[in-house]
Specification:
By secondary structure, this protein is mainly α. The protein contains 17 helices and 5 strands. 52% of the residues lie in helices and 6% in strands. It comes from Laodelphax striatellus (Small brown planthopper).
């Protein structure tokens, strides 16, 4: 027994005999003694070793991988996951415990837990995300897009709540200027936002659109017709005359659109609105904080 390194105490070990025994799977996880499988994780193929039996007890995916009809080799390439997320999953499988140094590690681990169908780890990750919104709120859109690209929807509701309650902080942050058009469309569809007015929302949209135009090399002459799918979410008809006078200075609106808005503000239905404009006269719930 003394030759088994799992039973050897380090010089600085202060655990009781009972605690040392309970800690045995953590030692196995950390040491990789007698490991019989190897994962090459991430784009740099970081090596993470493990034990087929222990992995198989935690996940039907691993069970099929190691014991099913489609057995894989002992060395498995996992190119679509982050090594740190895989390491966190491994620790959870061995010890039923997981800790995170950053919230992006939570996101990486969530993706890993979803891939290998480990619902208890998914729940643990979601608990961390629920409880940490004030800490990572400025990164929420980045996390949302990262998970959406991987067809993971568990974070959507949390992100929606963050945007509703911290709209000004989110839209003022540098990350908003670089989000995808689909994300902008999603935000512009919200009924409740922590802003002062529709004009303020339009101003943030304009800031994003100008940054997107620069990225895609859209000329100033093309701005008025380049964002119609997004512009149609702005409720210009809920603005007052002073607000629209400011919005009308934007190069995102064509002369035809400006005229149509002005005429419909004076008398709704007096002229048809272009498809690029919203006919809604229902105000959003604005609650600036």
């Amino acid at each position: 027994m003394d030759s088994n390194p799992l039973f050897k105490r380090g010089k600085n070990c202060k655990l009781s005999d009972e605690e040392f025994f309970k800690d045995r799977f953590k030692r196995l996880c950390d040491s990789d003694i007698n490991s019989d499988c190897e994962f090459l994780v991430g784009c740099n193929k970081e090596i993470i070793k493990g034990h087929k039996l222990i992995f198989s007890t935690a996940s039907p995916v691993f069970y099929a991988m190691f014991h099913g009809n489609l057995k894989e080799n002992a060395v498995i390439v996992v190119s679509d996951l982050e090594p740190k997320g895989f390491e966190k999953m491994k620790k959870f499988i061995y010890t039923d415990d997981v800790n995170f140094e950053t919230y992006i590690q939570v996101i990486w681990t969530l993706v890993t837990a979803k891939k290998y169908i480990i619902p208890h780890l998914v729940k643990r990750c979601m608990d961390f995300l629920h409880n940490g919104t004030n800490t990572y709120c400025l990164q929420a859109l980045h996390y949302y897009e990262y998970l959406k690209d991987r067809n993971i929807t568990e974070f959507n509701q949390i992100c929606h709540k963050i945007i509703e309650e911290k709209t000004l902080r989110i839209l003022s942050g540098d990350s908003f200027s670089s989000v995808k058009p689909e994300t902008v469309s999603w935000i512009l569809s919200f009924e409740s936002l922590a802003l002062d007015s529709e004009l303020e929302l339009f101003n943030f949209f304009e800031k994003w659109a100008l940054a997107e135009a620069k990225r895609k090399k859209i000329s100033p002459n093309e701005l008025g017709s380049s964002f119609n799918d997004l512009k149609k979410h702005i409720r210009f008809l809920t603005m007052n005359a002073k607000e629209f006078a400011l919005a009308a200075k934007s190069s995102l609106l064509t002369d035809e659109e400006k005229l149509a808005i002005a005429l419909n503000m004076a008398e709704f239905g007096s002229t048809p609105l272009p498809d690029s404009l919203s006919p809604s006269r229902t105000k959003r719930n604005f609650n600036s904080k």
